[in-house]
Amino acid sequence: MPKAAFSQSAVPAFGAAPSVILVTGNVEFFIDEAAGEAAAAFAEKGAEILRFDDEAPAEAVSDALLNRSLFSPQRVVQFDITRLLGSDAPGILLEQAVEAWERGTPAGKRESFRRARALLAALDLTLGASPEEAAEAAARRVRKKDLTGPLAEILKDLPEERGGSTVLQSALRLLLERGNDGTVALVTATAPPSGVDLLVEIEKKGLRLDASIGGERKDIAPALARLAKERAREREVTLDADAIERLRVRTDADPQLFAAELEKLLEWAGSGGHLRASDVKANVEDEASEDLYEFYESIGRREAGDALNRLERLFAIGRAVRRGEQDLDTEENWPQRFLGMLAEEIRGMLLVRSKMEQAGRGVDSSTTYPTFQARIVPLLAEPVAPFGVSPFAGKGGQVSAYRWFKAAQRSARYTTRELAQALARAADVDVKLKTYSEPLDALTAYVGELIAGN
Hints:
The strands form three sheets. The protein has a six-stranded parallel beta sheet, sandwiched between helices. The protein has helices spanning 28-44, 58-66, 82-85, 90-103, 106-122, 131-141, 148-157, 164-178, 197-205, 217-235, 241-250, 255-269, 277-283, 292-300, 304-314, 334-358, 369-375, 377-380, 401-411, 416-435, 439-452, and strands at residues 4-5, 20-25, 48-51, 75-80, 183-190, 207-210, 238-239, 274-275, 290-291, 321-323, 326-328. 35% of the residues are buried. It folds into three domains: 1-212, Rossmann fold; 217-283, Helicase, Ruva Protein, domain 3 (Orthogonal Bundle), CATH 1.10.8.60; 291-452, Zinc Finger, Delta Prime, domain 3 (Up-down Bundle). The radius of gyration is 28 Å and the shape is elongated. It is α/β, with parallel strands linked by helices.
């Protein structure tokens, strides 16, 4: 079956379920959460639920898959198969293995072994006769050579799997061929790479449900907050709400990075500890991207300090830049392209302000969007002779009400003359960008003069 987004309604009734249901995603917490919901739904209808952790012998899991239950006509066998499929995020697996190992606890060692096995599977490596060679190869492949030593220590102590991957893969393939005759495998995997044979077979004959956290940033925030609160509760750590928000911003709302940094912070705080926003700032590197729209907003507020700080971030080496949800390429001719986008924003501010003034409508930053839609958008949509279209219309001939609403808001603290002068100066700035050794200097001066009204 094709991959489907996870939801309770996407989980079929036991009798209609294929013999293998795979729940995947980008963060283990949300995968386990989804699989737990699926198992609970089956249990409510009387199914026997057998859960196996990573320490369970492969033979025991295989027996549960291939033999009918003595106690119920419906059996669900739940376990993780990340180590069978590998992962698209081996670098994170290596970091997690080392961090768990450094805890020095029995639970930490078990987690470390699990991550190490998944790492080797993701890179298609075997332990062989030399743990040192395997560790060196793995660390080199994920570009984390500084972790070669700790990984070698883990691999030296890694218990040998009896039967292991071969036994489980064979059992799953047999179950796929046999179909649901009273037993369903409910399996999970974190960030499995596409194209793996077993994954392809499950997608073809079973059901794959995706529990990845992604989409728009506003939709990610509640899920990350839930993750942080639950992990903090498990570790008995007090976690401030503003610390969660600071971590979300610092990790650029990347679910995998957020989860990884959260684990480090909780380990640092320790049981009974307290995590504050200042702790996040001190311990987590700033990986946040910069949003061009936020820069435009600071210009609209005429806040020079914030605007110039954001301008510097827009040109920081290695920092991702976006325009809302759209990622921007900052490699080729970025200063010139940036100036073009800024000039276009200023032109829009000037255009909408001039139109509103000509119509006798005041430009007020407190105007609400519904009011703007009702009173201003009809004016902007009026066609101009002899062209027969509005200068405010997009390529499809429609006027984007929200785009011009934001431009009007940003123009409210400027005069038409100030905006016209700034737009006229853009040509001179373009020349300077081609001659200055430091383009940021020319852009800083331009933005400073715009906000100052010079």
